[in-house]
Input
Amino acid sequence: MSVAVTTAQEGGICRLMKHPVVQNIGWAAGGIAILAILWSIAGYLLVNDPSTKNFAKFGLVPTLKAFPELWEMGKIQNALAASGYRLGMGLLIAIVIGVPIGILMGRVKWFRDYTNSPFQFVRMISPLSWMPIAVLVFATWNGSIIFLIAIAAVWPIMFATAAGLAKVDPNWFKVARNLGARPWHILTKVIMPAISFDVFSGMRLALGVAWIVIVPAEYLGVTSGLGYSIKDARETLSYDHLTAMVVTIGIVGYFLDSILVVIINRSSWHRG
Amino acid sequence: MAIRGTEIKIQGLTHRYGSRSGVTFNRVDLVSPPGEALAIIGRSGCGKSTLLHILAGVLKPTEGKVLLNGTEITAPSPRWVMMFQAPHLFPWMTVTQNVGVGLSFGRWSKQEIAERVTEAIKLVELQEFATANVQDLSGGQQQRVALARSLVMEPELLLLDEPFSALDAFTRASLQKDVRSIAKRKGFNIVFVTHDIDEAVIMGDRAVIMAGSPGNIVHELDIDLPDPRDRHDDAVQALRTRLMATFQEAANYTKPQSATLAA
Output
């Protein structure tokens, strides 16, 4: 009897181990473990070399120890709140501007013909090169940073929306009009569901760009946010805090990206 | 689901695609009584699909007008619904959502939509697929969904542009019978364009043959057969032969006068 129970349990464990989610977690844990080992080796080398001993706090163990410290001081929460607000506002502005213009580009040929070249030209300008102009134009640092994030994020959203619309079957519009749809219905019942996958894919790219831009943008002027925290840690020579904030950026960025991946998968109606 | 038929009056209908293009058809006149199933047959290029698109309000005539119980058709409307060659379903929706999409454009309560959609799905015998995504259905089932999507609007006139030509023979035969049977039960008019003589005989009460360039109606044939119709019946075969002969006669038709528009 006990042998049968043990065999059944072993079978259950085997099935669990073969589950794709468990396997994915296993691969991720393995990759992170390798990264941690390399980091530990680098930390060990830093400590044991007299010329680099001052940078020993860049190592894994001091960084891990810095996390509870920073959390208790509220530095991580405050930095995330400040950067999150700027990121959220910048992305929101990019979506509000990018999606309608992308729809116009995909739907109206003359608008696409007129705007394609100027948009491609402006898109190629590094978002951070707008910084001096943003500082002059906006009264607050917050306003400047939100502008930089918006101008970095708007292009992937706009072009992904336009590309999505270009793929929409024109017969769907014909069918909808035939059934009495008004322009508003065509927008909400046909266009938006048809292109949601492309819009969210554009938002994922935009998030990646915005997450990269926000840190250097916060090096200037402001006294809050992830970028400021890194700059502050560097100036106070708190290398363990600096590395902990860098790791925080990685973890939060990965988390936000994962959320969008889930949304993209759920919004996709394509088969195969 | 109460659907009533309508009298269709086509008066002096002329169409050309642009000022430099030739005339598609010239001064077409036709009357179809309420509840009639009218087949339009003819060779490619005689303007039968254009005529159907004008009936749907998708295209505007150059001259003349189409009246439905006295109302002029100038734009698409749920009162006259067109079913296309391909189903063109919305692939992100279920069967139920696709069938109800036209009602969601109007001012219907959720309960009314649900009731009418359930009835339409039952009519096309797809109850067991109601919650399935339309991408999981076969071509024939998808065309049934498109039919239900048109029927749920309770149109007075259902226009069909070679709706079953992309389907296999068995599915096509089954849908031809179903559409006619539903139309007769509900009493709405059908106008359908087809290249298939069998389809015209199985589905129609009357066939009009278009020919010439510019096109016009050159022949008419009443298809006075009892229902249900079987393509192997002698009466159906005899009418098929007659229609085929008329069609071939029409194929040799050339309009005597020059193709110019009336001033």
Q: What stands out?
A: Strands of chain B lie at 8-16, 23-32, 37-42, 63-68, 71-72, 80-83, 157-161, 189-194, 206-211, 216-222. The two ends of chain B are 46 Å apart (CA to CA). The domain at 8-79+155-251 of chain B is CATH 3.40.50.300 (Rossmann fold).
